[in-house]
Amino acid sequence: MKALLLIDMQNGFCPGGNLAVPDGDSVIPVANRLISDGGYDVVVASQDWHPANHGSFASQHPGKRPFEMGELSGQPQVMWPDHCVQGTPDAEFHPDLELSEIDYIQQKGENPAVDSYSAFRDNDHAALTGLAGYLKAQQITELDICGLATDYCVKFSALDARDMLPNVNVRFISDASRGIDPQGIKEAISEMRERGVDIVTSKVILAD
Predict the structure, then answer these.
(1) pLDDT, tens only, 93-108
(2) Which CATH number do you get for residue 171?
(3) N or C end: fewer C-beta atoms under 10 angstroms in the chain?
(4) One GO molecular-function annotation for this sequence (predicted)?
């Protein structure tokens, strides 16, 4: 059983969004081809879904500016611009994404006291989203992951998939993903590879 996990393909992370990833919208047509022609049994999408007072927002910390380092619940925290606030257009999926083919949407980042990069659990690892349980129930043996952004939510989701689904083959689809920082992208791909995540392109999958 093969599953495709689309990470945070939302307006907020695409050009014009509140936390735009460079060239972020270019992943949408690749994702749509994977959805239609990748041979997946299950298609899952994660969705950043923050309350307006989320503690990772610089606006919640007087004197802090976006992208500065700060602290959240005693842990170091990047201070982000307000983004993907529940019920706003910024939090909606990109309008060109083939939503009708998505079987399950996993929302994340709802607890204002902790950030949630991974689609599987909060950054402090205290709370699970339920995604691992869903994929286990579907008897998934292969999981392909792509989306936004490579050096944050995609990387942490892939690493958690390796930890929480030890019997599942996990692959990262590089051309269906974009990241924020070029050096961070290189390091993220290296870390994923070291942890047993295979690095592939959509061409490999669509040629299968």
Answers:
(1) 999 999 999 999 999 9
(2) 3.40.50.850
(3) C
(4) metal ion binding
